[in-house]
Amino acid sequence: MNNKPLAVYPGTFDPLTNGHLDIIKRVSKVFTLIIAVSSDSGKSTLFTMDERVDLVKNSLFDCKNDDLSCVQVMPFEGLLVNFMRLQKSNIIIRGLRAVSDFEYEFQMACINSKLDNDLQTFFVPTATDLHFISSRFIKSVAVLGGDISNFVPPVVQRALVEKYQKIDV
Question: What is the pLDDT of residue 48?
């Protein structure tokens, strides 16, 4: 039986990167984890909600050497605090790539705690060899036909190549 506390790692994951996977693998050693794929981020996404959920699930499935049995993937819309209440979790996981991420993430954590003072945000830095990876840069490289194999799981790489072949760039 799993006695780990339940945490939620929210994001758009458009697309999931190796930096995200690094955080998922490390955090899942401490927490039972819900990857909460957001539909309401204010960002324009390349992939649909269903595609992003499937890409995350398939990427996790491909991590056969890691025990990710305590990780599940769920879509959500609306306020994160409402999703947290529905899941009966008060732990939010946020990844940090660089110091520049911290200010935005800290402000978001403060807003969330004002909306629900039981929420706690845990900031997890990405591994140093992955801290420069961002979904935005991955898409920029992919659209120009660059090699992204070191930055994303294979299933995500294939999906990006396929998506950009369909789009007239």
Answer: 94
In the annotation, is 20 catalytic? yes
| Domain positions in the chain | 6-166
Distance CA 6, CA 162 (A): 35
Active-site hit among 26, 57, 85, 97: 97
Which residues contact residue 62 at a Cβ distance below 8 angstroms, ignoring those fewer than 6 apart? 153, 154, 155
136 is known as an active-site residue: no
- The structure's pTM equals 0.92
Active site includes 85? no
Q: CATH for 6-166, among 3.30.70.920, 3.40.50.620, 3.40.50.10800, 3.40.50.1970?
A: 3.40.50.620
* 59 classed as catalytic: no
